Amino acid sequence: MLAQCCGDRGETRLWNFANATSYKAARPFAGPPQWLTAFDLDKLTAGASQCFERIGSDTIQRVNAEFATRRRQFKLPRLGWRVSKGAKRSLGWVPFKAAQLQRKGKSCASQAKAFRVFERERLDDVKWKCGCFAQDAVGDWWLCLPVALEASQSVAPKLQVGIDLGVEHVATTSDGDQLTSGRFYRHIEQKIAHLSAAVTTSG
Fold first, then answer.
1. Which residues touch 85 (CB under 8 Å, ≥6 apart)?
2. Distance between CA atoms of 135 and 154, rounded to whole angstroms?
3. Which end of the chain is more exposed for a tag (fewer CB within 10 A), N or C?
4. What is the pTM of this model?
């Protein structure tokens, strides 16, 4: 099973360890509180890969990084616990670094385990970043893999455009476009001229 090959719920124990340790540091019995970072958690879990059969140091560091990111995002001293059994069991989740996933013919390999990837051609000539294996409610496992693509360049829209209202043309923009339709004022053009002259004279 992919769950056994990926982590055997070891990521749950790692997440809960980071959660409990960070909460104790943020709410200590004595001394100033500390907000542990991913680097702090990496130092505390150094050598922990010996306690797991299928989880290496790279995966441990990715769990720590994800926990620190979500904790900073929600600004909470403690996040939700991951549950490995029961009706409220947390769905499987195994993060990995980009270097842990490698191409192997028409398949991909992670931690010496090859698996088939549908639409494999989408991964040709692209660089991927840190991703994860995620389990859905049905029990199927999915590869979540962000890839880096070159964005197509387009001309940025103008932020400001000046408009000049006139008699010969209804409107003329600062970049030269003219609006000539809507000549509803032609039948009162003489009246407009007389009123303009009267205003000028009185001023």
1. none
2. 38
3. C
4. 0.65
Per the listing, tokens 């932020």 go with: 159
Helix (H, G, I), strand (E, B) or coil at 66: helix
Helix (H, G, I), strand (E, B) or coil at 93: strand
Q: Which amino acid is at 133?
A: F
Q: Within a 13 Å sphere around the CA of 99, how many CA atoms are in the beta-carbon half?
A: 5
H-run or E-run covering 115: strand 113-116
- Treating both helix axes as pointing N-terminal to C-terminal, what angle do 10-26 and 57-74 enclose, rounded to 10 degrees? 50
pLDDT truncated to tens, each residue of the chain (203 aa)?
334 444 457 889 999 999 999 999 999 988 899 999 999 999 999 998 888 877 888 999 999 999 999 999 999 999 999 998 888 889 888 898 888 888 877 778 877 678 877 777 777 778 888 899 898 888 888 888 888 777 776 666 666 777 777 766 677 777 777 776 655 566 677 777 777 777 666 65
36 in Cβ contact with 28 (< 8 Å) = no
